[in-house]
Amino acid sequence: MLLYVRLTVEMADRSVHYEAAFEDYIRSRGLPYVAVDEAKKAIFGAASIKSFDFLVYSSAGPNLLIDVKGRKFPGELSGRKRGACRTWENWITRQDAEGLTEWEKVFGGDFQAVLVFAYWLQGRPGRSPFQDVHVFRRKHYAFAAVSLADYLKNVRPRSRKWETISMPSVEFAAAAMDIASFL
How many Å apart are CA 119 and CA 99, to the nearest integer? Predict the structure, then answer.
C-alpha cells in the first residue's frame, strides 16, 4: 500500500478564517502540530482519502487528527427563538466522517480523530457558554471538540442531497468539550 502525504511545518496559507483562528490558537499555546497541506492528497492505490486539517501532538492522551469545521455561534436571540436551531450547528459531510475514519486506521492506536467546531461568536463574547474564548483578527472564537467515535454514535442524516449528517443540538452541547480538554 503506497502512502503519500505532504505535511507542512510552517504556518499554512489558511484562507479559511476558522482554520486560521484554530491554528493561531494552538500556536499561541505552544503546542506541537503539523498543518496538513490540502493541495497534496494521500493516495492509496487508486483511492483518495479526504484530508484532515491538523495533526496535534497531545500530552493529555492520544495525538489528534483534527478536522476543523467553521460555524457561526449566534448572538442574542430575539423574537421566537430566532436562530436557536443554529446555536450548536455541527453538521459534517459523510465524506468527512469516512476520511477521518480511514486516517485513524492509517495512523493507528496512538492517534484519535477529533472534530473541532470553530465557532465564530456573534454578539457579545461574554454571553456565550464558552470559558476559553480566543481572539483572532479582532474576532472571537471558541473551539468545541468531540471525538469522531462519540460523534458517530449520535449522528442523524441531515441532508440526503448534500450527504450531510449532524448530532441533535442538545446531544452535541452535552458531548462537546472545550478543545483544551483534548490537549
Answer: 22
Beta bridge partners of 42: 49
CA 37 to each of CA 8, 30, 45: distance values in angstroms, whole numbers, following the listed order: 6, 20, 20
User: What does the block give as the cell for 134?
Assistant: 480566543
* Percent of the chain topping pLDDT 70: 80
Give the residue from 123, 131, 130 showing the smallest Cα distance to 76: 123
Please report the domains of the chain, with CATH numbers, ordered by start residue.
7-182 (3.40.1350.10)
Q: Cα(109)–Cα(26) distance, rounded to whole angstroms?
A: 23
CA distance 95 to 89: 18
3-class secondary structure, 48: strand
Task: Give the rounded distance of the alpha carbon of 46 from its chain centre.
Answer: 27
Cα separations (Å) of 147 from 7, 52, 73, 83? 22, 14, 20, 26
Which residues are paired to 117 by β-bridges? 69, 144
CA dihedral 69, 102, 54, 117 (to 10 degrees): 20
The model's pTM is 0.85
For residue range 48-97, list pLDDT tens digits in order: 788 899 999 988 889 999 999 999 998 765 444 544 456 899 999 999 99
Query: Residues 98, 166: contact at Cβ < 8 Å?
Result: no
Q: Which amino acid is at 138?
A: R
